[in-house]
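Quick start: what a row looks like.
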Amino acid sequence: VALFLEEAGLPYEVVPVDTRKGEQHLPAFRAINPNGKLPAIVDVEGGREVRVFDSTAILIYLGEKSGRFMSAPEDRGELLSWLMFIASGIGPYSGQAVHFQRAAPEQLPYAINRYRREAERHYEILDRHLAGRTYIVGNEYTIADMSAWGWIDRANVVLGGDDPLAPYPNLKRWFHSIDARPAVARARKVGSDHAFKQEMDEDAKRAMFPTNYPKVA
């Protein structure tokens, strides 16, 4: 989402939400995203507040509103398909792979293998698709590239190793071409001036993974 805003040059205000402090569960934020997840936006242009949550929904909303990065009309079906592939495949399986490899209280070989292998499978699909292609959809840079970039940027955490994209040469080439865009450097700085909580203590674990704990009446 930060990458889209920087690419499009849209004016925006950053409102930090510290997830390790549990600020995503505060009523003010839950009023924007009942699911208590980041990111979320409030569009106040035109005098009426429009709340949008989930990165894919936000990218589609901003793309349609601005008329930018939405692909040629004849490619719209493919654009939506790849966005859903990222949202329902690469994103959640990467997240679960990271959780069970790095955050779970015990190492569960079945869960680690299941989610890591699925993350690798999604990488393989995208790698094959990108053979001979500059962008994911059509001949244009779109929100599908932005969405996928956000997840592939975390390949070193998902897969580990010094060069996690080495087995996926087409994906690696594509990633570095997107990563070299000037807007990426600006997007990486978004929120960097805020002192977020770094400790993963018990309070942070309860804030980040509340369903692992009994509900408080």
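That is the whole record. The chain has ten helices and two strands. The longest strand covers residues 40-43.
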